[in-house]
Design goal:
single chain, 251 residues, alpha+beta, 6-stranded mixed beta sheet, 3 helices, 16 strands
Length: 251
Amino acid sequence: MTNINSKRETNFAVTLSPCQFRDHTYVARVPRRTVTTDQLLDLVSAHNQGIDRYQVGHAMELLKKEILEQAELGFAVDIMEICKLYVAPISSVKTLTPESESVSGFEARFAVNRQLKKRLLGVTATVTAVVDSAPQLSQIVNPVNETEEGVLDATFSARIRGHKLKVGGEAGGIFFVPVTGSGEANPDETSWIKVPDDYVTKNTDGLLEFHLPRTLETGSEYFIAVRTAVRGNKELKNPVTGFSKIPVTIR
């Protein structure tokens, strides 16, 4: 349950995530924290001494009943000059005789009133976090012995767990990136070894499973990079790449 502050103090904040469709642009999102009816009644009591909380609650129940009834009758309801509730058909109607048809299946929609829009335009929020949209590799497992020691057996397979891992798009793929003399991932992508697409046996947001490329050198170290240009059902303007935190050794 969301904690509320009767002193009208706020910790209103947003999170930022890089926009993959525009460079140097971030998408701000407001975390959804719901205040319940009981909490609203507590606030009414705290801000209005002498108000009967239960009487206000009863009035709210009566008001809710009337709002729902008017919506079922097809009316748009202006809810306390905050928003307007109206109903709309869920889908279009296909028929050769429209005059004789009955339409069923409706959904609720809301239109924000001008007063609320104006008040929200003046709100300022802090940033709590910047959320990276790149794939996040949290575990690299050797399925041969189910270990996570950073060692993979040549000609066998690997399993990666994490978030936002699903590979897709023309430039997408799983790559073994050679480690440089300074212990960094080699930025020269011509040296990267891609896992052939048909070697990938599991491709989901949380799990990748694949056979190792035959061209990997035993005794060598590689970072694993996951590159994708898809997020859910959308294709990103630019692919994003996530790297393993530590390199793996091929034995």
